[in-house]
Batch of 3 targets.
Target 1
Amino acid sequence: MTAHTAPEDLYRQGLRMLLDKDIPGWVGLWDDGVFEFPFAPDGWPRRLEGRDAVAAYMRGYPDRIDLQGFPYVEIHRTDAPGTIVVEMRGVGRVVETGGPFDMAYIAVVTFEDGLIVRYRDYWNPLVAQGISGGGR
């Protein structure tokens, strides 16, 4: 992946990495950016700053969520350079309970020089109530 790769292609590559549980690869898509969760419930992070913070947050993700697919992904270009808006749905299972995971997302993601510099993740906090571990 290079700085000349389209943001939507970089984003889709990131989704494949998440399905492959390649968290280090996914974190490698980041610059020292900001990851925000505007709808995060109490006790969950609302803002992560820097690649190290993103890596620490995502490190245990496969231990909590067995992500199995994205049956719906629609990516919209914006007038802002490097910024896309993504509507998507992720499905899988909650590892601890074995119960289903089904989350709708809207994300606003900005890339610069082929790396994520800002990611605002608008996910459903009601689904989070069924996931333990204090983070998605």
Target 2
Amino acid sequence: MKCSRCGLCCHNTEMLLSLKDISRLEALGYNRKDFVTITLEGFHQIRNIDGKCFFYRNKCIVYNSRPEGCVYYPIILDPDGKRCLVDEECPNYYTVTKSEIKRNCKNLKKLYKELINEAQKR
């Protein structure tokens, strides 16, 4: 995939966070109360400030430690969590290859299950 670093995926994001993501970001010195919200369904989600990801300041300030879902984006799961697809809202969605989808899909499905398990425990 070719990322142009446009930051569109960081605007009005609904990126879910695993407990591992949260711990990794806390280890950088951030307080979870500042960057995490909890959805009605019990998922941890990244907080938006003025319509942008908490960590987006004209670029991702935690890029090397970004949430796992951000690593896989624009590869996403369908609403049922069964099929990987490419988010066409990404301006470079067309650069994602079938091999990239295949390579990341297994990990994305594993992350999805982890997020569901964590939410159910809350």
Target 3
Amino acid sequence: MRRLLLLGMACVALAGCETTRVSPDQARQVSAEDVYAFGRPSGPEYARIVFTQDAGAMSCFGAGMQVFLNDRLAAETSSGKSVKLYHKPGLVQLSIKNNALCAGGDLRGLLLDLKPGYSYSVRGYRGTWDKAEPLLASPEPFKYTK
């Protein structure tokens, strides 16, 4: 009975671990080696997507996430880190998934309608059963200068 209780508590702890939101301004930047595509704008009309992964060592033991734009791997993040990606205006599918160190590796995404020269803030957090979830976050999209 005691083993069953301990096993149950461990499952609840792993399934219910919360992450902590990190402001993109306070987050550490992803290293250049972990940005594979969309790391530079090709023109002034390109929209910027600032993806920030929540912090939380208990959630998937602090494992990172992979960020995809239109099914192309753009970057890999880790706990409390942020990456700036650039894409031409129009519809873009932003998807994320846990890296290989964490269960729940299926892609989860959202569709963004990017406006020329606007910046979008997207939060990556872990929801139920530690599945990676993207969320359009504050601030609202705004015109950026650099």
